[in-house]
Design a protein that fits this description.
Helix content is 40%, strand content 24%. It has 168 residues and is an alpha+beta fold.
């Protein structure tokens, strides 16, 4: 009985931390949390895609160091125990190189490249499903199980007391 009460209190504490805003001053103690920058690819830009600017300049879509890039989305998340809870910043289109590197693109760059190469980004510029809902779903399931087992144990305790009273 005592272990289930402790489990319920732990789950309610984690749910409370997830419900209320966190900042870096809460990073001490038993709760491991922080921010993470997420970058993922949303559309492929062909490596041989060639462009011509209005000034007549020509070239390929590459980063400053000459690396080809694709369209990606970048955003920041807040995680608790490495499980994402919130998307902190609005997802934004970037030039995706790999999971850690990207090229910053302006809205004009994105419109120009996507219109020239006929790439449709509609509905793709968003955080992943796991980053948006995964952590919240886990917390809800843990709280529901904790409450269920707490009341189940409480009911079993009252049933045992009734059977002892009727047996004596």
């Amino acid at each position: 009985m005592k272990n289930k009460q402790i489990l319920l209190m732990l789950m309610l504490t984690v749910a409370g931390l997830c419900t209320f805003g966190l900042n870096k001053s809460y990073a001490r103690g038993m709760v491991i949390w922080g921010e993470a920058e997420k970058i993922r690819k949303i559309a492929e830009i062909p490596d041989n895609a060639y462009y011509i600017t209005e000034e007549g300049d020509t070239g390929y879509y590459v980063s400053e160091d000459g690396t080809n890039f694709d369209f990606g989305v970048i955003y920041n998340t807040i995680h608790v125990f490495w499980i994402p809870m919130w998307v902190k910043t609005e997802p934004k289109v970037c030039g995706y190189i790999d999971g850690d590197n990207y090229v910053e693109l302006t809205d004009e760059d994105v419109k120009l490249i996507s219109s020239e190469l006929k790439i449709d980004l509609t509905g793709k510029v968003k955080a992943s499903l796991w980053d948006r809902f995964g952590g919240k779903a886990i917390v809800i399931v843990l709280v529901v199980f904790g409450v269920y087992f707490y009341f189940k144990e409480k009911k079993e305790g009252t049933d045992e007391e009734k059977s002892e009273e009727s047996g004596s």
